[in-house]
Specification:
about 0% strand, mainly alpha, about 75% helix
Length: about 350
C-alpha cells in the first residue's frame, strides 16, 4: 500500500515537472528573443548604466520607448530568475529515488541562469550597448549568446529527463544505474554552439553597420579599413552552409536507418517507442537544419530585416532544442546498449 502511494506521488511529481519544464523552455525562448529585440532596437541603454534597477528606480518614470523595451526585458528576466530558483528548490526537496538526472539538470539550469544575468549586467554596467562597437562588446556578446544556448540546452535536458521518467520509468531506472557512455558522434552539438557564437558576430555587425546593398556589404567584409567585426562575420554563413550540409546528411542517414529497422522482430517491444522518438527527432533535425540555412540565406540576401532576424534566431534555438533532445534520447539508447 505504501509503495503504491509512493509511486503515485512520484507520478504526480513527474507529471507536474514535465509540464512546468515545457513552459519554462518556451518562457526562456521568449526572454531571449526579447533580449534580441533590445539589441536590434538600440534599447540597451534605455535604463541607463544602473542594474538591476532601471534609471535608479524600481519602476522607471520615463516616456522613452527604449526605456520600456529594456525595462520589460529586465522584468521578464527577473521573473525568470525567480521561477528557476523556485523550481530548483522544489526539485531539490524531493526524496524519491532515481531523480539524479532531474536534480543535476535543474542545478545547471540555475547556474547558467545566474551567469546569463551576470553577462547581461556586464553589458549594461560597462556600457557595451547601443552603438558601442568595441572588441570587448563583441567578446561579451559572444559569451552571452553561448550562455543563452547552454541555458536553453540544460532546460531542455531537464524536460527530457522528466519525459524519460514519464514515458520509460523502468528504462530510466535501469539507465541511472549504468555508467554514462559518450556518444560516438556528437559533433553536431559543438557545431551549433560555434554557429551560435559566429551568429552573434553577424547579428551585431548588421545592427552596428547596416548596408544599403548586398554588394556594399560584401565590399565592407573585405575592405582593409573595415571594423574587425565586419571582417569576421563572413565566417557565419560559410560555417552555416558547411555544417548544415554535414548535419542534413548525418540526420537523414539516422532517419533512414530507423525507417529500415521498423518492424525488426529482433527489437524488444519496450524499446520500440524510444527508437521511434529518436528516429522522428532525426527527421525533424534534418528538416530544421535545411530550413534554418534557407532562412539564413534569405536573411543575408535581404540585408537582415528585423522580422527575419528574429525568425532566424527562433529557428536556431528550435534546432538547438531538437539536437539536445536527440542527444538525450540517443544517449539513453547507448546507456541501455540498444542497437
Amino acid at each position: 500500500m505504501k509503495k503504491n502511494l509512493n509511486q503515485k506521488s512520484i507520478d504526480c511529481f513527474i507529471e507536474s515537472l514535465w509540464k512546468i519544464s515545457l513552459a519554462l523552455v518556451f518562457y526562456t525562448l521568449l526572454v531571449i528573443l526579447w533580449g534580441a529585440w533590445v539589441r536590434i532596437s538600440h534599447s540597451g541603454d534605455g535604463c541607463g548604466d544602473t542594474w538591476p534597477l532601471c534609471q535608479g528606480q524600481l519602476i522607471p518614470d520615463s516616456e522613452l520607448k527604449k526605456t520600456w523595451v529594456e525595462y520589460s526585458h529586465r522584468f521578464t528576466s527577473g521573473l525568470y530568475g525567480i521561477l528557476v530558483l523556485a523550481l530548483f528548490f522544489w526539485i531539490k526537496k524531493q526524496t524519491f529515488n532515481s531523480l539524479f538526472q532531474i536534480k543535476r539538470w535543474s542545478f545547471w539550469v540555475l547556474i547558467f541562469m545566474i551567469t546569463e544575468a551576470l553577462l547581461g549586467a556586464k553589458l549594461v554596467l560597462f556600457k557595451l550597448v547601443n552603438l558601442n562597437d568595441s572588441l570587448w562588446r563583441v567578446i561579451v556578446m559572444s559569451l552571452h549568446q553561448l550562455n543563452s544556448f547552454l541555458l536553453v540546452g540544460f532546460t531542455v535536458r531537464l524536460l527530457c529527463a522528466a519525459l524519460e521518467y514519464k514515458w520509460f520509468p523502468e528504462l530510466s531506472v535501469m539507465s541511472a544505474n549504468k555508467k554514462t557512455q559518450r556518444l560516438q558522434n556528437n559533433r553536431y552539438l559543438l557545431m551549433i554552439l560555434i554557429l551560435a557564437m559566429t551568429g552573434a558576430w553577424a547579428a551585431l555587425s548588421t545592427t552596428l553597420f547596416p548596408s544599403v546593398s548586398l554588394l556594399e556589404g560584401f565590399a565592407k567584409d573585405f575592405a582593409t579599413d573595415s571594423h574587425s567585426i565586419l571582417k569576421i562575420r563572413i565566417t557565419h554563413p560559410i560555417l552555416a552552409v558547411s555544417f548544415g550540409i554535414y548535419m542534413i546528411y548525418y540526420f537523414a542517414n539516422k532517419y533512414s536507418e530507423w525507417k529500415d529497422s521498423v518492424g525488426d522482430s529482433q527489437g524488444l517491444i519496450k524499446y520500440q517507442n524510444l527508437e521511434q522518438i529518436v528516429g522522428r527527432l532525426a527527421k525533424a533535425m534534418a528538416f530544421s537544419v535545411f530550413l534554418a540555412v534557407l532562412i539564413g540565406i534569405i536573411t543575408l540576401l535581404s540585408l537582415s530585416p528585423t522580422s527575419l532576424k528574429l525568425i532566424h534566431l527562433t529557428l536556431a534555438h528550435v534546432l538547438w532544442m531538437l539536437s539536445v533532445s536527440y542527444y538525450h534520447f540517443s544517449s539513453l539508447k547507448k546507456r541501455l546498449n540498444i542497437e
